[in-house]
Structure to design on (428 residues):
């Protein structure tokens, strides 16, 4: 059985791992990057508290010695279902079963200026770009004599009050308090603000009311200016326009406000549901297809009675769907019926700052905050990293940051765009 997986995130990699050493199954994982990375800690790379290598690992290193698993670097261009074939940017692959595990991409809700000028927070490349942008603007502010321009360089606006928006806002608030004034004495007491904007009535909308209120209180105490029931409507000439008529002057608009799935050539239009997510049956088979499946953020499944509107786009759903589909693929050789997917909600959490976090557990229903919740957050995220190497490096960096209230990773490192070595060479 030849299974091709598109995407090596939580869903795709867990599916591949679960099929390891299955004698009658050959797995090819295709990804446009040559590494897996851990999205929940992207913001710590973006704020220079973790190195990129702490939360990433090469696919080929991970697959080395695993005979029935192989990796292909490439980007999907087209699916030809009638021929059981996919077209990549660098060749073709045939399949018996095709699995989409492509996750989601940043959604700008059709606002071209925001897409062009805001700083996204979705990929490892985004995180490095954000780190470089923030650090360069701090250096510019240090030598800027114009008070208004300096304030614009120092002001940070975060759009989106979900876990990513909350976590990056809290991190910047603590950096402003413990690092910026120490390392940039030229700034003195220069005025600047950190704004967190969300279109809903509360932060962390999917979480409990207690978590929402605790988060709002903790961020406010850290100095974050929170504006709810407010949306970013445009971003032009360093000006953020809000739905309430207000404007904010800033060089730093961080976009953590929404995601959408991707459309792929060859997948029927009627196979897509809300948010461009592929609509699937209870076994994650894409509606209108025979041997194409979708798992994780890229799919929407309306068959789970506990989640009639579809599952949340979170890591646990992706992991569990990957494991469930792997078990079903194993059942094919045994001529046994597939097992429908049933999501086991293990809870949700968000970190706000040092010794500050919120955790909700569904069964039994419990809410934690403060240091204990913070410790739970650290533990869960640490054990979720892909290798022991990642866990050790991340733990080491966290300990330095905890006791020193600082980290020494604030380097502006960017590729030389004038040297594109090998980009124009033909594929062999």
């Amino acid at each position: 059985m030849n299974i091709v997986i598109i995407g090596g995130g939580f869903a795709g990699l867990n599916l591949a791992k679960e099929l390891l050493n299955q004698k009658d199954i050959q797995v090819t994982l295709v990804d446009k990057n040559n590494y897996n990375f851990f999205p929940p800690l992207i913001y710590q790379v973006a704020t220079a508290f973790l190195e990129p290598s702490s939360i990433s690992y090469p696919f080929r290193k991970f697959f080395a010695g695993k005979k029935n698993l192989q990796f292909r670097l490439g980007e999907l261009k087209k699916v030809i279902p009638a021929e059981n074939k996919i077209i990549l940017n660098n060749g073709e692959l045939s399949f018996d079963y095709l699995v989409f595990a492509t996750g989601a991409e940043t959604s700008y809700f059709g606002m071209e200026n925001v897409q062009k000028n805001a700083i996204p927070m979705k990929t490892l490349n985004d995180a490095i770009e954000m780190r470089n942008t923030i650090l360069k603007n701090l250096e510019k502010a240090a030598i800027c004599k114009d008070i208004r321009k300096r304030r614009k360089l120092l002001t940070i606006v975060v759009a989106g009050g979900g876990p990513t928006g909350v976590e990056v806002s809290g991190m910047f608030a603590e950096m402003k308090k413990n690092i910026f004034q120490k390392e940039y004495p030229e700034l003195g007491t220069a005025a600047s603000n950190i704004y967190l904007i969300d279109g809903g009535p509360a932060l962390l909308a999917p979480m409990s009311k207690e978590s929402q209120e605790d988060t709002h209180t903790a961020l406010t105490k850290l100095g974050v200016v929170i504006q709810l029931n407010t949306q970013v409507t445009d971003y032009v000439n360093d000006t953020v326009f809000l739905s309430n008529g207000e404007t904010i002057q800033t060089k730093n608009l961080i976009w953590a406000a929404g995601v959408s799935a991707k459309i792929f050539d060859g997948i029927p239009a009627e196979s897509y549901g809300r948010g461009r997510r592929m609509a699937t049956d209870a076994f994650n088979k894409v509606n209108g297809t025979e041997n194409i499946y979708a798992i994780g953020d890229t799919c929407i499944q309306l068959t789970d009675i506990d989640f009639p509107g579809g599952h949340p786009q979170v890591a646990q759903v992706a992991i569990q769907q990957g494991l469930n589909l792997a078990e079903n693929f194993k059942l094919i050789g045994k001529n046994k019926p597939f097992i429908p997917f049933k999501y086991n909600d293990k809870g949700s959490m968000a970190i706000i700052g040092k010794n500050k976090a919120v955790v909700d557990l569904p069964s039994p229903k419990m809410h934690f905050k403060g240091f204990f919740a913070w410790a739970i957050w650290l533990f869960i995220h640490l054990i979720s990293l892909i290798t022991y190497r990642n866990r050790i490096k991340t733990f080491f960096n966290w300990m330095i940051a905890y006791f020193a209230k600082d980290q020494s990773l604030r380097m502006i490192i960017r590729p030389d765009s004038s040297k594109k070595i090998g980009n124009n060479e033909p594929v062999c």
In short: The two ends are 28 Å apart (CA to CA).
